[in-house]
Specification:
InterPro entries: Elp3/MiaA/NifB-like_rSAM, MJ0683-like, rSAM, rSAM_sf. By secondary structure, the protein is α/β, with parallel strands linked by helices. It has a single domain, classed as pyruvate-formate lyase- activating enzyme (Alpha-Beta Horseshoe). The protein is built from 13 helices and 10 strands. It has a 7-stranded mixed beta sheet with strand order 2-3-6-7-8-9-10. A 3-stranded mixed beta sheet has the order 1-5-4. Strand 7, helix 6 and strand 8 form a beta-alpha-beta unit. Helix 3 runs parallel beside helix 5. It is globular.
């Protein structure tokens, strides 16, 4: 592959066909030649922010092995561009590709705080931890511009409702003031994703994410302010970051994480094609080894949809990963406990002063 053919700053290197569409588009060589002659760009590679207007914002999670009951996503699509991201497939429901479109067409839910407050006021709603975000990162670059996540955290604080956060962006520290207030009432838990200690690996796997140094600092600052942090060492990808499990666990523990979780990578839906294309362009010397070892964890396939097994994997390679995880927990997390969030305050704040009458 020619260096000029590589799309810098992006994870996916193509737009895969949308499985819901009858027709597909392709960029032909004659079109590229026309653009060259005319001095035009065939692809501007710029991010678009597209407002959308959903009627609800809180999603009920029905998958039994996900570990959350409810989630909400202020943004659809994610500019971080993580090549392995399972959320890529959801972009097809919006009429886009799971490939480059997922990273460059970011759907913005400006009404999210208003919709969340409506949920908080609902007479039928009972306190249940809502996770920001179950799908795409709530602190991705768009948040710096739109501040939707911050506004949502203010709603959670107002109603004393428990909230979980999943992110790999140091931008979360901007909202340290609100997080500290939530922590006073044991209402927030943060999950910080750390996939590798190698910047070289981080840059190709997750091109627009915070550096590893910033992520470890984020864990440390949150922990120093009493905010409980669980590290997400996920996904573990054989022959890419699987050898880092012990070092990753020690690093996040040393910086104050109280626990860690992991998954074995699976390439569901369009991600199989996107990842395969990516690794043959970025790591051609070990592409087949990586793909074969991923398949070895999922019964000979890149994907596995079986609940309870899909995220854990099976076979000898998966067993080696699990053995390392058990050892890491024993060595670095033996005396640590991630606290449960408080679900008892919400009812008193649900109706405000109306409770007095």
């Amino acid at each position: 592959m020619k260096q000029e053919d590589y799309i810098k700053g992006r994870g996916a290197q193509q737009n895969t066909p949308n499985k819901f569409f009858q027709y597909t588009n392709e960029t032909r060589d004659d079109f590229l030649e026309f653009c060259r002659i005319e001095g035009e760009e065939a692809d501007h590679n710029k991010t678009q922010y597209i407002p959308i207007f959903p009627k609800t914002i809180v999603n009920k999670v029905t998958s039994p092995d996900v570990g959350m009951m409810h989630s909400m996503n202020p943004y659809q699509g994610c500019e971080h561009g993580c090549i392995y991201c399972y959320a890529r497939n959801t972009h097809e429901f919006w009429g886009y590709s799971a490939g480059l479109d997922f990273e460059r067409k970011i759907l913005i839910k400006k009404d999210a705080p208003k919709l969340l407050e409506a949920k908080m006021k609902s007479k039928r709603w009972k306190a249940s931890t809502i996770v920001l975000s179950g799908n795409t990162d709530c602190y991705q670059p768009a948040e710096k511009k739109f501040e939707i996540t911050r506004a949502c955290l203010e709603v959670f604080l107002k109603y004393r409702h428990p909230v979980g956060i999943i992110t790999k962006n140091a931008l979360i520290l901007r909202d340290l003031d609100i997080l500290k207030e939530l922590t006073k009432h044991q209402l927030v838990g943060v999950n910080v994703s750390v996939t590798s200690l190698s910047e070289k690996t981080r840059r190709i796997l997750e091109p627009r994410t915070a550096t590893i140094k910033k992520r470890l600092k984020t864990i440390r600052v949150l922990a120093e302010n009493g905010i409980p942090v669980n590290a997400m060492l996920a996904p573990i990808i054989p022959a890419i970051n699987s050898h880092e499990i012990m070092n990753l666990a020690k690093a996040v523990s040393d910086n104050g994480a109280l626990s860690f979780a992991f998954t074995v990578v699976r390439l569901n839906g369009a991600i199989g094609q996107i990842f395969t294309d990516w690794i043959r362009k970025t790591l051609p010397d070990r592409a087949e080894k990586v793909l074969l070892q991923i398949e070895a964890c999922h019964g000979g396939n890149l994907n596995d949809s079986r609940y309870g097994i899909r995220g854990r994997g099976e076979g000898n390679i998966a067993k080696q990963i699990h053995d390392l995880v058990r050892l890491a927990r024993h060595m670095y997390f033996r005396d640590k406990v991630f606290p449960k969030l408080n679900h008892d305050l919400y009812e008193s704040f649900k109706d405000g002063q109306m409770r007095l009458f």
